[in-house]
Write a structure and sequence with these properties.
Order of helices and strands: HHHEHE
CATH architecture of one domain: 2-Layer Sandwich
Number of helices: 4
Shape: rod-shaped
Largest sheet: 2 strands, antiparallel
Structural class: mainly alpha
CATH superfamily of one domain: Zinc/RING finger domain, C3HC4 (zinc finger)
């Protein structure tokens, strides 16, 4: 509860010889003001939580209307999490490209790009110098 009654005595303000004007309000006005302030703080927190939840669900299969519990969008979730190759969508990302360092493809797709005519990173279009395999424990 917000209470400012008796604040003058608590702060030990000496207003006897000063040019100040204090407005007296009733206890119910203070209670109403505190309730309004509390409601506003709760509203701000509620909006912040909803905005955070909306940001976290962007790009997931809930927006596409697919059911998560049935597992019908597991590949979409894996792509969103950055685990699947962006070229073949069949294998996990298990290599990185030198010199840019992007890890967007599986080793087979990266080798195909490197041995091909173009030899550029699918993310940044930088010329690939080497393809290195990632080893995860």
């Amino acid at each position: 509860m917000c209470s400012v009654t008796g604040m003058n005595q608590l702060l030990k303000l000496h207003l006897d010889n000063s040019q100040s004007m204090m407005t007296l309000s009733t206890e119910s006005d203070l209670v109403d003001w505190c309730f309004a302030l509390d409601l506003f703080a709760r509203l701000v927190a509620y909006v912040a939580v909803l905005e955070k939840a909306r940001v976290l669900t962007d790009g997931t299969c809930e927006e596409e209307g697919e059911d998560i519990e049935t597992g019908s969008c597991s590949s979409s979730e894996e792509l969103y999490d950055g685990r699947m190759c962006v070229i073949c969508y069949d294998e996990q990302r298990n290599c990185f490209l030198v010199p840019c360092g992007h890890c967007a493809t599986c080793y087979d797709c990266a080798q195909r790009i490197y041995e091909g005519e173009n030899k550029v990173c699918p993310v940044c279009r930088r010329v690939i110098g080497k393809v290195r395999r990632l080893f995860a424990p």
